[in-house]
Automatic annotation (TrEMBL):
PANTHER family: SENSOR PROTEIN KDPD. InterPro entries: HATPase_C_sf, HATPase_dom, His_kinase_dom, HisK_dim/P_dom, HisK_dim/P_sf, Histidine_kinase_KdpD, Sig_transdc_His_kin-like_C. The keyword DNA repair does not apply. It catalyses: ATP + protein L-histidine = ADP + protein N-phospho-L-histidine. It is found in: Cell membrane. GO terms for cellular component: plasma membrane. Keywords: Kinase, Phosphoprotein, Transferase, Two-component regulatory system. Residues 84-295 form the Histidine kinase domain. GO terms for molecular function: phosphorelay sensor kinase activity. This is histidine kinase. Its EC number is 2.7.13.3. It holds the Pfam family HisKA.
């Protein structure tokens, strides 16, 4: 359909109501009202119409390209989601089914230890399912912009131990001062974010070297650093670890949905903070979380600085 591109003078209601129309493209008209154009004026208006039509067509192509890229991204996410669901849901479901089936066998007598082991396997598989479902729901909330923060003054030295509580204590070493300023945050969401970062670090770090968590103040921010000595990430893929469903190497670990760090970054950014990664000197990955101190109390005397947080005492070289 042909549409009016622009109007001069008293704008015509439709191209048909214009006193002069000049083609500006295959489906565009420059519609004007007023005295008829003659001679040089008509040539100038025609040249302007052509130029304006070119600009409009270029903008249309750009918008079309943006929409195409967006559709490709959505298709990629949907494909990754199907892959995650088919693998990550199927694996723990199989564990639950196998454990329950074994417990229901009537012709096999299981001792208390065997029953306890099977129940532990079922529980672990159910926990993995719960984690995956939680991550999927969190990603949906982030994508829909439906994340509501319940902020309150919170101490960082309370958040970090809560985030680490579900992981083996011997695998994590915490160095978070008690005298850091309070943060005005949603404690539950930040515990989830830190928990996802810690779980990822522990998963890839060698069992002989604990993950080190330090914290300090840098100007108007609190900075938390999670340092592991795992295999690390190639420099050109460091930021990609925060992309939903991203897995650097599926052969390294079958655990995790590829959503944990993406969810963590979303939660942190909802607090106007940042979550970034960098290589650990000597090998490994360091995830750096920065949160603003807007409205928080000033740091207590002797509070750790970010430089102290960068180099925890006794950390591996």
């Amino acid at each position: 359909p042909i549409s009016a591109l622009a109007a001069a003078g008293e704008a015509p209601a439709t191209p048909a109501a214009a006193t002069t129309t000049v083609p500006a493209g295959d489906d565009l008209l420059l519609a004007l009202s007023g005295p008829p154009l003659r001679g040089e004026d008509a040539r100038v208006v025609t040249a302007v119409a052509v130029q304006v039509g070119t600009v409009v067509e270029r903008d249309r192509l750009r918008e079309s390209a943006r929409q195409t890229r967006r559709e490709r991204e959505l298709t990629k996410v949907r494909t990754a989601l199907l892959a995650a669901v088919s693998h990550d849901l199927r694996t723990p479901l199989a564990g639950v089914k196998a454990g329950v089936s074994a417990l229901r066998l009537e012709d096999v007598e299981l001792g208390p230890e065997d029953q306890a082991a099977l129940l532990a396997d079922v529980e672990a598989s159910a926990d993995r399912l719960q984690q995956l479902v939680d991550d999927l729901l969190d990603m949906s909330r982030l994508d829909a912009g439906a994340l509501a923060l319940r902020r309150r003054p919170t101490a960082l030295d309370e958040l970090v131990p809560r985030a680490a509580s579900g992981l083996p204590a011997e695998r994590i070493r915490l160095d978070v001062p008690e005298d850091l300023p309070l943060l005005d945050v949603d404690a539950g969401l930040l515990v989830r974010a830190l928990g996802n970062v810690l779980e990822n670090a522990v998963r890839h770090a060698p069992s002989s070297t604990p993950v080190v968590v330090t914290a300090g103040r840098a100007g108007g921010h609190l900075v938390v650093r999670v340092v592991d000595r795992g295999p690390g990430v190639p420099e050109d893929q460091v930021d990609a670890v925060f992309t939903a469903f991203h897995r650097l190497d599926d052969s390294r670990s079958e655990e995790g949905s590829g959503l944990g760090l993406a969810v963590a970054r979303g939660f942190v950014e909802a607090h106007d903070g940042t979550l970034e990664a960098e290589g650990t000197p000597g090998g490994g990955l360091t995830v750096v979380l920065r949160l603003p101190l807007t409205g928080a109390a000033p740091a207590a005397t002797g509070a750790a600085t970010v430089d102290e947080a960068r180099a925890p005492a006794g950390s591996a070289p």
